[in-house]
Amino acid sequence: MSQHDILVLYYSRFGATRDLARLIAEGIESVPGVNARLRTVPAISTVCESTEAAVPNDGAPYVEYADLQDCIGIALGSPTRFGNMAAPMKYFWDGSSPQWLSGALIGKPACVFTSTGSLHGGQESTLLTMMIPLLHHGMMIIGLPYSEPDLMSSSTGGSPYGVTHLAHADGNAPISAEEQRLAKAQGKRLAETALKLIQK
Questions:
Q1: Is the alpha carbon torsion for 73, 77, 82, 83 positive or negative?
Q2: Is 122 helix (H, G, I), strand (E, B) or coil?
Q3: 3-state secondary structure (DSSP) of residue 39
Q4: Which has the closest alpha carbon to 9: 64, 74, 56?
Q5: What gap in Å lies between CA 125 and CA 71, rounded to an integer?
Q6: How far apart are CA 87 and CA 73, in angstroms?
Q7: How far is CA 65 from the centre of its chain?
Q8: Using an 8 Å Cβ cutoff, are 61 and 55 in contact?
Q9: Domain around 152
Q10: Span 170-174, mean pLDDT?
Q11: Nearest to 109 by CA among 22, 34, 12
C-alpha cells in the first residue's frame, strides 16, 4: 500500500501545542497507509535584524510551502494569543498566496487544535480563526463529533471545533487523559477522511 503524508503544522512556545501535535500524529499514523509529517514555523520578531537559525535547535523541522502541496491533509495547531492564532503561524499563512492562486489545497481536509493558559482563554475563537485561511484555500474542515465521549466528560480541554488543552498560566499542566484520547481521535478521523477523498 502506498504511503501518503498528512502535514501536522504547529507553533509552540512552551511545548504544550507541540505535545498535542505529537498525539494527533499518533492518531494519524494509526491509519494504515498514512504518515504524519510534523513541521513547525519559526518565531518572528519586531526587531528586523533578529533572525532564527535555518534549522531549529530541536523538535520538528521548519515547514516549507512545498509541504502544503505534498500532503493530502493538514492538522494546524497554535497556542492562543488573545483569542487568535499566534503571529508566527499567521505570518506563514500570510505568505501562502502562490498556493492559493494555484489551488494547491482545494478539496483537502484539515483540522485545528490549540492550547491555552486558562480555561476561558479564547480556545474556540482561536480554533475558528485558524479555520479562516484554510477555508480561503478551499479546504474541508474536520471537527470532533460528540460521538467522542470525552467531549462531554472532559473538565480540561476539548471542543467540537478541534481538540484543546488547558496548560494553566505556567504552561506546565500535562495533557489530560481525555485530551490525549481526543487528540488521537482527531488525527485518526483526519487520516481516514483524507484517504476516502483521494480514493474517489
A1: positive
A2: coil
A3: strand
A4: 74
A5: 26
A6: 22
A7: 16
A8: yes
A9: 4-198
A10: 85
A11: 34
Spatial CB neighbours of 199, under 8 Å, sequence gap ≥ 6: none
Cβ atoms < 10 Å from Cβ of 14: 14
Grid coordinates representing 169 are 498560566
Number of domains in the chain: 1
How many CA atoms within 13 Å lie on the side-chain side of 30? Answer: 15
Mean pLDDT for 49-55 is 62
The amino acid present at 153, given as its one-letter code, is: S
The mean predicted confidence, pLDDT, of the chain is 92
pLDDT digits (tens, 9 = 90+) for 114-154: 999 887 778 999 999 999 999 999 999 999 999 999 999 88
Number of H helices, E strands in the chain: 7, 7
DSSP E strand boundaries for the chain: 4-10, 34-40, 74-81, 84-85, 109-116, 140-141, 164-166
Q: How far is CA 2 from CA 30, 66, 138, in A?
A: 15, 20, 25
Q: Which three cell numbers stand for residue 29?
A: 499514523
The set of residues, in sequence order, having a beta carbon less than 8 Å from that of 118 and lying 6+ positions away, is: 166, 168, 169
138 contacts 147 by C-beta, under 8 angstroms:
no
| Strand-strand pairing, 140-141 and 164-166 | unpaired
Measure the CA–CA gap between 116 and 126, rounded to whole angstroms. Answer: 10
- pLDDT score recorded for residue 30: 98
Q: Tell me, what CATH number does 149's domain have?
A: 3.40.50.360
